[in-house]
Amino acid sequence: MKTIIEPFKIKSIEPIYFNTREEREKILEEAYYNLFLIHSRDVLIDLLTDSGTSAMSSGQWAGIMQGDESYAGSPSFYRFEEAVRTVTGLPLVIPTHQGRAAEKILFHLLGGKGKFILSNNLFDTTRANIEFSGAEGIDLVCEEGKHPSFPAPFKGNVDTAALQKFIEKTGAQNIPLVILTVTNNSGGGQPVSMRNIRETRAICDRHGIPLFIDACRFAENAYFIKLREEGYAGKPVPEIVKELFSYADGCTMSAKKDAFANIGGFLALRDEKLARQCRNLLIITEGFPTYGGLAGRDLEAIAIGLREVMDEHYLQYRIRSIEYLANKLIDAGVPIIRPAGGHAVYLDAKAFNTHIPPDQYPGQALACALYLAGGIRGVEIGSLMFGKYDAARRLVPAPMELVRLAIPRRVYTQSHIDYVAEVVIEVFRKKREIQGLEITEEAPMLRHFTAKLRPVSGNGPAALF
Ligand code: F0G
């Protein structure tokens, strides 16, 4: 088979800025070893997130010029609504300014004290919105999903036996919904199989619990189903996507991922009463239901992006380019979550930095080392993001210590990715030099965004790596 090429050519470019190791040391120290606090101009290859960072197509930019900015009843909204309905089959469409706004509305209405919301893996904002409502979020990912180096086709699946057991133990009346994250971002961007979604639906039906999809990366998940699940190889992606949503009562979506938009999101529902309640809240927090915190032009970009993302040449290139980076790292012995995820490669920092204990944040230390070594910005998904404290204020570590290298859609070329592999491999060869970190300041929720840290050695960044 020939090389799978980028299915686009470049019309407009954006410069990136180079800096030196010495400059990066100063930048990192001034950012308190928190990569969220670094200016993006000081980053060479930005793999912090695949969210809102996509390159839009000429079609989307043309759509932006069609944006109608009427407060109520904009044709841009009706085009957006039609696109969401066509793609998902869900009839009631509520725009929001991004995914977490949809989560906030949904969990405000359905969450609350004493309630449990079950999932394969909740992502950080989803978990935070659940907890903010007073409810508890429960991750029930399958056993394979908990072992980074163990390759399996659908490591994002929910453990259906555990789900069934949890519902029986807790009582369906305390479980307002089950939400499946496709692909499961905090567990390695791993897909959920159609079979697992169908089985989850059957369990939910038996107990009268609604099933929702956190649909951020629905197209990547659908393409994995096409590649890996029996019976789907010959099906067009839009059909797989339709089937996936057919099992759901609703979805939350961040259009900043699989809609190639720089901002936006939505809630899509079947239940009229719930939709009415959501719209009432939407008006207070986001805006009138035909724009929901977005400009008309954003609605146009999302409507077009939702269709573009299901193009199979694009999806083939997308999945292959992540795998390309993963394979280079695997060949060099770098521990990563296997197989490669749909939107990112996840370094297994626990196996990478065996000499750094969880309370010295091995993932964050590795993320900082990658920045120092090559100006690459990834994100820790480990005990800094998900760690908790027990009653004695000892850290309860997250189950996995990961560094995610998320690949923005249609932004970087193969040589950028080659460079990333070279830097990661260089750091891996000198991994013993990486030092742990400690937190000096943190917020009570979503602390990873703003926390301040310093090397435990008491020395500056030169000593960190
Ligand atoms: N759900 C999942 C699975 C996500 O990955 C995200 C965002 C959200 C919900 C929230 O969407 O950002 O539009 O409010 N994930 C980004 C990331 C931020 O870097 O993975 P949002």
Element layout with pairings:
Elements: H1 21-30, E1 45-46, H2 58-65, H3 75-88, E2 92-96, H4 99-110, E3 116-119, H5 124-132, E4 136-139, H6 160-170, E5 177-181, H7 194-207, E6 211-214, H8 218-228, H9 237-246, E7 250-254, E8 265-269, H10 272-285, H11 296-308, H12 312-331, E9 344-348, H13 349-352, H14 362-374, E10 376-377, E11 379-381, H15 383-386, E12 388-389, E13 395-396, E14 402-406, H16 414-429, E15 437-441, E16 452-455, H17 461-464
Parallel strand pairs: 1-10, 3-4, 3-5, 5-6, 6-7
Antiparallel strand pairs: 2-8, 7-8, 9-14, 11-14, 12-13, 15-16
Bound molecules: ligand F0G.
Ligand F0G binds at residues 49, 51, 98-100, 123, 125-126, 181, 185, 214, 216, 254, 256, 265.
Explain what this protein looks like in three dimensions:
- The chain has 465 residues and is α/β, with parallel strands linked by helices.
- It has helices at 21-30, 58-65, 75-88, 99-110, 124-132, 160-170, 194-207, 218-228, 237-246, 272-285, 296-308, 312-331, 349-352, 362-374, 383-386, 414-429, 461-464; strands at residues 45-46, 92-96, 116-119, 136-139, 177-181, 211-214, 250-254, 265-269, 344-348, 376-377, 379-381, 388-389, 395-396, 402-406, 437-441, 452-455.
- The protein has two domains: 21-50 and 311-464, Aspartate Aminotransferase, domain 1, CATH 3.90.1150; 58-308, Type I PLP-dependent aspartate aminotransferase-like (Major domain) (Aspartate Aminotransferase, domain 2, 3-Layer(aba) Sandwich).
- A seven-stranded mixed beta sheet has the order 2-8-7-6-5-3-4, with helices on both faces. A three-stranded antiparallel beta sheet has the order 9-14-11. Strands 1-10 form a two-stranded parallel ribbon.
- α7 (194-207) links the parallel β5 (177-181) and β6.
- α3 packs parallel to α11 (296-308), α4 packs parallel to α5 and α12 packs parallel to α16.
- The relative contact order is 0.16.
- The model has no long low-confidence stretch (mean pLDDT 96).
- The structure holds ligand F0G.
